[in-house]
Amino acid sequence: MAKGGNVRVTITLECTSCTQNSVDKKSPGISRYTTRKNRRNTPLRLELKKFCPYCYKHTIHGEIKK
Length: 66
Hints:
Layout: E1 8-15, H1 16-24, E2 32-38, E3 47-52, E4 57-64
Antiparallel strand pairs: 1-2, 1-4, 3-4
């Protein structure tokens, strides 16, 4: 039998370069993706390289708090 508990959680990934640039000047938006991760295998914050439609390039998207 499997042990109970929510091992898989839904997380939000946010573009790191858009959040840094939005402080200096107005940006059209911030790119966000939702995905699921296994808390047991990756206990640290997740960072993936994804396409940002506002920067028009592949950037690092980091996990944010909800």
